[in-house]
């Protein structure tokens, strides 16, 4: 059983967060969730689902939800051991703040902690196009050991639905944490 922190920001792609949390819990892992203020708004807009209700309805003792301004949360400290952190989707605002070490909300602080402790940290950055500022901040994160997984479909797998595309991305994210899953199919050649 792994313990994974999953952050969500106000970037488009809330469904990636939803699928990640559902899959981790389904597989029996412990999940610590933190959502930015805008994440909750975009989640409701994109999925027609209230973020708090979604978490509540998961009805899992393995799900822990922290408030974005709760710096007393366990995940704000490096002494709380985890197996890593995923931010899905990650806005350019949050990318910039993490790259500059602002630590001014719990999600950004938790990412700062994971990076300083050299733990696996994966972000799914969502913006199009990327500006030079975005790319410089992403480079800073990559050079700090962050695994950058853009939500780019593997078209060669011939996805039929949005869910197929999301599963590919989430499967790849879980692979990075060595979490067995059946979401991502591997290319087996032709
Ligand atoms: C519907 C919607 C979609 C958005 N999509 C993106 C996006 O894909 N990428 C991004 O960087 N910002 C996006 N934004 C803007 C962010 O929500 C905004 O920059 C916010 O300040 C991010 O703050 P946070 O990182 O604390 O969540 C979107 C906003 C809305 C309302």
What structural category do the secondary elements indicate?
A: alpha/beta
Largest sheet: 6 strands, parallel
Task: Tell me what portion of residues adopts beta-strand conformation.
Answer: 15-25%
* CATH fold title: Rossmann fold
Q: What is the class in the CATH system? A: Alpha Beta
Helix residue percentage: 40-55%
Uncertain ranges: none
- The figure for the number of domains is 1
Distance from first to last alpha carbon: 36 Å
Describe, in plain words, how this protein is organized in 3D.
The protein is of the alpha/beta class and 190 residues long. It has one domain: Rossmann fold (3-Layer(aba) Sandwich), CATH 3.40.50.1950. Helix content is 41%, strand content 16%. The protein is built from seven helices and six strands; from the N terminus they run βαβααββααβαβα. Strands 3-2-1-4-5-6 form a six-stranded parallel β-sheet, with helices on both faces. Helix 1 (14-26) crosses helix 7 and helix 4 (92-99) packs across helix 6 (132-143). The radius of gyration is 16 Å and the shape is globular. The chain starts with a strand and ends in a 14-residue tail after the last helix. The relative contact order is 0.17. Flavin mononucleotide is lined by residues 9-12, 36, 38-39, 42, 45, 91-94, 126-127.
What key phrases describe this protein's structure?
single chain, about 190 residues, alpha/beta, Rossmann fold, about 40% helix, binds flavin mononucleotide
List the helices and strands and how they pair.
Blueprint: E1 3-8, H1 14-26, E2 30-35, H2 37-47, H3 51-58, E3 63-66, E4 84-90, H4 92-99, H5 106-116, E5 121-125, H6 132-143, E6 147-148, H7 162-176
Parallel strand pairs: 1-2, 1-4, 2-3, 4-5, 5-6
Helix pairs in contact: 1-7, 4-6
Bound molecules: flavin mononucleotide.
Flavin mononucleotide binds at residues 9-12, 36, 38-39, 42, 45, 91-94, 126-127.
């Amino acid at each position: 059983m792994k313990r994974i922190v999953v952050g969500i920001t106000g970037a488009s792609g809330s469904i990636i967060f939803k699928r990640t949390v559902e899959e981790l819990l389904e597989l029996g892992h412990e999940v610590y969730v933190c959502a930015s203020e805008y994440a909750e708004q975009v989640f409701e807009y994109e999925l027609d689902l209230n973020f708090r209700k979604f978490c509540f309805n998961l009805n899992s003792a393995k799900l822990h939800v922290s408030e974005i301004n709760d710096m007393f949360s366990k995940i704000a400290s490096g002494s709380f051991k985890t197996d890593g952190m995923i931010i899905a989707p990650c806005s350019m605002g949050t990318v910039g703040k993490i790259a500059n070490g602002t630590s001014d909300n719990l999600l950004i602080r938790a990412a700062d902690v994971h990076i300083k402790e050299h733990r696996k940290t994966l972000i799914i950055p969502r913006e199009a196009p990327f500006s030079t500022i975005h790319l410089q901040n992403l480079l800073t994160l990559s050079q700090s050991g962050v695994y950058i997984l853009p939500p780019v479909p593997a078209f060669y797998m011939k996805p039929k639905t949005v869910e197929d595309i999301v599963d590919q991305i989430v499967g790849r994210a879980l692979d990075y944490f060595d979490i067995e899953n059946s979401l991502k199919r591997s290319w087996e050649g032709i």
